[in-house]
Amino acid sequence: MKDYLVKALAFDDQIRAFAISSTNLVEEGRRRHGCWPTASAALGRTLTVAAMMGSQLKGEETITIRINGNGPIGSIIVDADSKGIVRGYVTNPEVHFQYNSGKLNVGMAVGTDGQLSVTKDLGLKDYFTGQVPLQTGEIGDDFTYYFAVSEQVPSAVGVGVLVDPDNSVRAAGGFIVQVMPGATEETLTKLETALANIKPVSTMIDEGYTPEAILEAIFGKDEVRILDRHDVHFECKCSKEKFETGIMSLGKDEIQAMIDEDNGAEAVCHFCMERYQFTAEELEELKNR
């Protein structure tokens, strides 16, 4: 299934909803960083939420999510924009914990002694940052808490990643459901009942549910009004030119040391693991610019 997300309204426009199929996006992140299963789930859940939150942006606006619960996985950092472009990484990708049931124990990997922060770059040096303490480290619960506390929007966030025995991502997806101002008690009761009875998101994606079908499973087929659809994918904005700028900022002495000691340099992007080689001649040119 091609990765994409949908934006919708439900229950007579009293509920705003997003749903996404993100299997390929998450698998690309796993592949680039060599994540073990639990790290794949932690990164994948965050990539999935970021894509849906990015769809709420406009134009060139971007969002950066940082999660650090002081667990073995270290930090999770993910960027997304309004066009469905997402990238991200974890500090320690070789982390794997399971519950006795075999389910991936993301909370143990992430930890709860830390923060979830969301920074929105709205352009023209205008930034908005919201930050909340981590609640469970399971990602979905933490974003539910973030929306309620930082953005004052009652929400339910469901995300899931299913990893195959060969360590590849078999299914990934998610939803965000948000209560609009003026929603009735009857609507809230219907929503709570629906959310309590749906299958896990990763199960639905694995069974072939589309994003539209996920929302129909929550609200009922006749209760959903789709507003928009767009593709999502993993893509990094790094380039050799950007690393050139970074190298020049080190100063002539540091660049000369690279030439003398290593006869060149290699730069690696944290977000995508792309490697850029610089010869001694290229470094000499950068030093003299």
Description:
By secondary structure, the chain is an alpha+beta fold. The protein has 2 domains: 4-234, Hsp33 domain, CATH 3.55.30; 240-287, CBS domain Like, CATH 3.90.1280.10. The protein has helices at 23-33, 37-54, 106-110, 140-150, 185-197, 201-206, 211-219, 240-248, 252-262, 280-287; strands at 4-10, 15-21, 62-68, 75-81, 85-90, 115-121, 127-133, 155-163, 169-179, 224-231, 233-234, 264-268, 275-279. It has a 6-stranded mixed β-sheet with strand order 7-6-3-4-5-11, with helices on one face. The radius of gyration is 21 Å and the shape is elongated. The model has no long low-confidence stretch (mean pLDDT 94). It is found in: Cytoplasm. Disulfide bonds join 236-238, 269-272. Keywords: Chaperone, Cytoplasm, Disulfide bond, Redox-active center, Zinc.
What's the structural blueprint in terms of helices and strands?
Elements: E1 4-10, E2 15-21, H1 23-33, H2 37-54, E3 62-68, E4 75-81, E5 85-90, H3 106-110, E6 115-121, E7 127-133, H4 140-150, E8 155-163, E9 169-179, H5 185-197, H6 201-206, H7 211-219, E10 224-231, E11 233-234, H8 240-248, H9 252-262, E12 264-268, E13 275-279, H10 280-287
Parallel strand pairs: 5-11
Antiparallel strand pairs: 1-2, 1-10, 2-9, 3-4, 3-6, 4-5, 6-7, 8-9, 12-13
